[in-house]
Structures are given as C-alpha cells and as structure tokens.
Amino acid sequence: MGFLSTLLGIFGFGIGTSIGLLIGFFLFIYSKPKTVKLNFLETDKTKGFTVPNKVTDMMVNSQQETGFLYSRKCPELQELKFHVDNGVVFRLIYEPVPRPLYELDNDQLLDILPDIPLWVKCPDYERVDWLNKFVADMWPYLDKAICAQIRSATKPMFAEYVGKYQIEAIEFDNLSLGTIPPEIHGLKVCETNEKELVLEPAVRWAGNPNIVLTLKLLSFRITVQLVDLQIFMAPRITLKPLVPTFPCFATVAVSLLGKPDVDFGMSILGGDIMAIPGLYQFVQKTIKRQVASLYIWPQALEMPILDPATVAVKKPVGILHVKVVRAQKLLKKDILGTSDPYVKLNLSGERLPSKKTTTKKRNLNPEWNEKFKLIVKDPGSQVLQLQVFDWDKVGNHDRLGMQFVPLKFLTPYETKEFKLDLLKHTDSYDPQDKKQRGKIVVELMYAPFRADSGKLDGTQDGYSRKESGFDRTSDSEVFGGAGLLSVLIQGAEDVEGERHNNPYAVVFFRGETKRTKMIKRTRDPLWNEEFHYMLEEPPLNEKIHIEVMSKRTGFSFRSKEHLGNVDINLTDVIHNGRINQKYHLIDSKNGVIHVAIKWVTA
C-alpha cells in the first residue's frame, strides 16, 4: 500500500508540474501588460526643467514601479527617471547623459563603442547624412516597391507548397516595412585595379514592419506575424563591370563582410513563440549560418542591370589554326594567260589586319602549305573569310574569288579539310555568274583555351613524382604549350612632359612594336587598348618593355618627348595566369602606368 501511494504521488506530482508549467507558459506568452500615458505635468523644481509636449504620447509598462525612459522622438531627452504609482507618474527627474568622451571611464567607453558611427571610429568611412535624407524621403515609395518585389518573388515559392501537406493557401495579409527607414552610419569607397566600383556601407535598421503571413491548413487559419525587426550588417556592394552605357554598370553584386545581427519577434496565433526557452538562440544561429553559407564574401548575390549581350566585351576564347594547302584551276588575269595568286584570310568582326600567304608567280594551281593562327572571340557566330587575289605590280590587285567557312561547323581539337569552290561574291547567289573560278583547299582546327590556364600541372610546388625519387621539373614542361598573351594598357597617371603633354604608350615585345592612340593635353590618359601576341611557347624569363611618349601636334624639330618607361617580367604572369597592377615609370617623377597582362593556353 505504501509503495502504491508513493508511486501515485510521484505520478501526480509529474502531471501537476507539467500542467502548471504549461498553464504558466501560456499565461506568460498571451498576457499583455496594461499601458498608460505618461503624465508629464510634474517636473523637478530643483532643476527647473519642463518636458516638451511632443513626448506626451510615450507609453510605459504599468507593471514597472521605477525605471528609465529614452525618447526617440525627442533626442534632447537622453534619460528620464520616473516613478509609477497605480498607473500614474507622480515624479519625473531629468538627468542629462551626454558628456565629453574624455570624462568617461573604460567601461563606459566600451558600452557606447558599438553605437558610435563608423565615420567617427574609422577615418576611411565617410559621413553620408545626405544619403540618409534621400532614403528617408524616398522610403514610402521604396517600401511599396520592395514589398511588390517580395510578393512577386515569393508567389511561385508559396505555390509549390499549395496542395501539399493539406495546405490550401499561403498569402500575405499585410506586407509593409513600416515607417522607419534604414540608416547608413558610414560609407567606404574602395579603389581596385579592376573595372568596378566597390561600396561598403554600414547599415542599421530598427524598423516597425507589419508583416502578416496567413497559412490555410485544412479548416484552420494560422497567422504568423513578424514584429520588432532589427538588422545590423556590413554589406559590400560591387558595381561591375563599368561600361559606357547608362547606368554605366552591368551587374550589382552584394555580399556580406561578416555575419549580420538580426533580431526580431514572431507571433503565431497571437503568441510570441520567441519566448520559448532556447528557441530564440536556435533561430539566431540558424539565420546567421544560412546567410553566411550564401552571401558571406567572397560569395555574392548578383543582380543583372543591363543585358549582357549589349554591353559584354568579347574576349578571346580560342585559337583557329588555318593551313592554306592549295588552289586549283584559278582564273587567268595576266596578259600571258597566267596569274600571280596569294590568299588573304581573316575572321569576321575583327579589325586586325588580314593574314597573307606568299605570292606564287605565274601559277594557276599554286601549292602553299602555309599555317596561320587567328584569335577567336565567338565561335558560334564568327566566319573565316578567304579571298584569292592576283598580284599586280601596278594598280589594284584583282580578286580571283572568295569563300567563307562558319566556325560553328568545327569540332574543337579536330582537324577538318575543306575543298571550296571560289565565288565572285559570298553575300548572295548570282545565277548569271556561271564562270568557274577554281577551288581552294584549307585545313582548319579550332582550339579553345583551357579553363585552368595559368595553373600548375600537378603539385603547387612544381615537383613531380618518379620511381627514382623526387625530381624538379623544368618550367617549360610545367607551363609548356602554345597560348595567347594579352596586354591591356588601361591608362597612366601624373605623366608630365617638359614641353607638351600628349601621351601615348608604345609596347615592345619580341621585335614587335605596338602603340596606343594619343590623348591630347592630359597628364592622366585613359587608353583601354588591348594587344595580343600568339606564341608557340610561354614567355618564361622574358620581359615586356612599355614606354610612355608625348608628341607635339604641330611641326617641330623635337616633336617627341620621353615621359617614362617600365620593364615587366612575364614569369609572374605565366605562374599566376594574370596580373593587374600599377607600375611606377622609370625616368618619371610621379608617373604611374596601369597594365593588365593575361596568359591563356590552348
């Protein structure tokens, strides 16, 4: 009997405790404190201070007997001490808080340090009150625009769950970001060598959103409300690439420099579920973990602004290997019944000079067997144009015929032979032109650039494993293979001549000389001109020489002037695949030139 009573007592205690905790929990969640208006008629006569009328609508908890109050509406009231007796404030004391920083001790400084704007703590952050004013004035319209985007973006997501798990509908009853706009506590503009603009604002938002989501499940209607949202974050906004088309950037990339601080309350069926012990910390960690996995730098959310097809600058993607083999039964253009043929070849959409074969004198069936390499930027649309001419010593050269080959017919790394009938024109078919103009035979092979160009083949330290041990491989073995060297001369700064400032850049490499256009009357020219060199092997241990010159526009005996030069070692380019740096010019006081060099292999 004693054992049974003990067992029942323990069982009853457990049930009673559980029911008591459950009832207390629901009372804690659903109970709402009584709110009263502060009576600000009482003042502290010793201080002679009267509270302004614009804070008389401030509400406090009637369950508090004493406490402190901070007014957002009236910033000059830093701290108010009050005493409540039966819902009536009968004493109010004004205690000003602002004091010089040197009067605060270490603990007080540490307490206020998170609230100090970044433009005060960090000299590279700028104060942007004008931007906050702009956002505040635009916020009512931004609120509606952002909410409309949220509705359109979430509608297909909600539609995926309708019909599943007995869910009948998911929709927003209310969707508003409130009346309080976010504030930017500082803005940092970062300079890079790339064609981009990087902004790093410090954003704080303690908003009053009204977001109510309704879930219709069977015959139940469940409402979820988001309240008291606070977000502190430091995003990095990158506008790239900069293009000469309004708004002058094609994409906006947003990433976070650190985990954001997000605080909010969530009410389900009128109850604050964030009051459940342990749930608040779990939700905070989950949000930070999910956001970090998606948007923490270097990961980013990219939003296209302009159509890539309209602003994209086509870059080389491969090399077309062309072998002009022979021609047969060409037209007779000379008086003696022969011709002196040669072939010009180029790719459509290119402004580069055409490649030429040698001239075969007095030959209607010439054999060339000459090889050429052409840079391919768009294999899907570019066309190889072949033109056969008769060389004449005097006057224009006569065209014997022409033909074209679309690159889309080629398979990468596969050599294909074409036997083509020469035509008078390739743009249209002329039924009256029945003259046989001969044939031309060419071999074509398209080699796209490798995705891992510029990376080491094998281990990072350049060692390869052999049976006899570890032997260091030579650079030619590691980085061997033909490729394309691209040299982009972006611009220069502080180049100054003694007599004139009309700068242009000259590039010297392997006996070739290439120059940019001349910019008149400037010390900071911007060229943005790119030169290409197709090489049979990587230019290891070689240098490229760049000179900045100035030329007088009028007649003068000393029309050219040397403004500076630089030698760039290409070894780093081959090892890293690409460099983008500013180099100080030799023989120049403050001159700097901005050069980007890239090496890709086929």
UniProtKB/TrEMBL annotation:
**Pfam families in the record, alphabetically?**
C2, SMP_LBD
Q: Where are the transmembrane segments?
A: 6-30
Identify a single GO molecular function assigned to this protein: metal ion binding
* Any GO BP annotation: lipid transport
C2 domain boundaries: 297-420, 464-583
Q: Where is the protein localized?
A: Membrane
> Known SUPFAM superfamilies for this protein?
C2 domain (Calcium/lipid-binding domain, CaLB) (SSF49562)
List UniProt keywords, sorted A-Z: Calcium, Lipid transport, Lipid-binding, Membrane, Metal-binding, Repeat, Transmembrane, Transmembrane helix, Transport
Which family is this sequence assigned to? Belongs to the synaptotagmin family.
Name of the protein this chain belongs to = Synaptotagmin-3 isoform X1
